[in-house]
């Protein structure tokens, strides 16, 4: 199991946080998702593919790198 850290832009409230968490939890290989709203940082544990995670965040309406 590994951790992937994503920088996510556009999250402003707990609703955004929930959207991003929900989007990432739906990805194959994701074990847990921790969103730090203040830092704009998301830590994903598991063995998911980084590109899949970025795509899920973008599809949810935010930008990720
Ligand atoms: Cu929001």
What would you note in describing this structure?
The protein is an alpha+beta fold. The chain has a single domain (2-64), classed as Alpha-Beta Plaits, CATH 3.30.70. The chain contains two helices and four strands, in the order E-H-E-E-H-E. It has helices at residues 14-25, 50-59, and strands at residues 2-9, 30-36, 41-46, 63-64. It is globular, with a radius of gyration of 10 Å. Copper (II) ion binds next to helix 1.
Question: Which helices and strands, and how do they pair?
Answer:
Elements: E1 2-9, H1 14-25, E2 30-36, E3 41-46, H2 50-59, E4 63-64
Antiparallel strand pairs: 1-3, 1-4, 2-3
Q: Helix proportion of residues, in percent? A: 25-40%
Largest sheet: 4 strands, antiparallel
| Fraction in beta strands | 35-45%
Q: Terminal Cα separation, in Å?
A: 20 Å
Q: Which hetero ligands occur in this complex?
A: copper (II) ion
Number of domains in the coordinates? Answer: 1
Per DSSP E runs of 2 or more residues, the count of β-strands stands at: 4
Mean pLDDT score:
97
Output the strand order for the largest sheet: 2-3-1-4
Spatial extent as radius of gyration: 10 Å
**Helical region count?**
2
What would you say the CATH architecture is?
Answer: 2-Layer Sandwich
Keywords:
65 residues; alpha+beta; Alpha-Beta Plaits; 4-stranded antiparallel sheet; 4 strands; 34% helix; globular; binds copper (II) ion
């Amino acid at each position: 199991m590994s951790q992937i850290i994503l920088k996510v832009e556009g999250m402003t409230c707990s609703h955004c946080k929930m959207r991003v968490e929900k989007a990432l939890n739906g990805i194959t290989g994701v074990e847990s998702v921790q969103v730090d709203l203040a830092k704009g940082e998301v830590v994903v544990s598991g063995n998911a593919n980084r590109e899949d995670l970025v795509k899920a965040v973008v599809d949810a309406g935010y930008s990720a790198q």
